[in-house]
Design goal:
Pfam family, one: Lumazine_bd_2
Shape: globular
InterPro entries: FrzH/put_lumazine-bd, NTF2-like_dom_sf
CATH class: Alpha Beta
Number of strands: 6
Order of helices and strands: HHEEHEEEE
Number of helices: 3
CATH architecture: Roll
Distance between the termini: 38 Å
Largest sheet: 6 strands, mixed
Strand content: 35-45%
Mean pLDDT: 90
Protein name: Putative lumazine-binding
Oligomer: single chain
Helix content: 10-25%
CATH topology: Nuclear Transport Factor 2, Chain: A
Number of domains: 1
Low-confidence stretches: none
């Protein structure tokens, strides 16, 4: 017996991308954007260039991220939606220093009609194979 996965369209792709873009824009002094994008209990798992894993409640990083003013841009690689859950494979690219770029797998859930990021799993771009910039 063979199982075949069929990935449908993401009917709410514009709203999903808007929420993820809030996260990216939050690095330009946008603490409020970060708060809007992330569920209050969202977690991050990040693997740096040396292979060290860091984990945190994302809200613990809001202040540092919002005050970093990092010149980053989003690169939407893939968006998948299945009803009230979605995932985004995102290039989180530093526009001035490609060495400081990441690839994120972002999970979202729709709660009370609003999309919220529930987790971010990231790898430094040097560990992202074909998805790096």
């Amino acid at each position: 017996m063979t199982n075949t996965a069929v990935v449908g369209e993401a009917p709410e792709i514009d709203e999903i991308k808007r929420v993820v873009q809030l996260y990216v824009d939050g690095f330009q002094g946008g603490r409020e954007k970060l708060q809007e994008a992330f569920h209050k209990d969202a977690w991050i798992f990040a693997l740096d260039a040396e292979g060290e894993l860091a984990t945190d409640l994302i809200s613990e990083r809001f202040e540092r991220w919002a005050n970093s003013y990092r010149p980053v841009k989003s690169r939407f690689i893939a968006v998948t939606q299945a009803g009230d859950v979605a995932s985004v494979l995102l290039g989180f690219d530093n526009s001035e220093n490609i060495v400081d770029s990441w690839v994120d797998v972002i999970a979202l859930i729709k709660v009370d009609g609003l999309w919220k990021i529930t987790s971010k799993t990231a790898a430094h771009s040097s560990r992202a194979a074909w998805a790096k910039p």
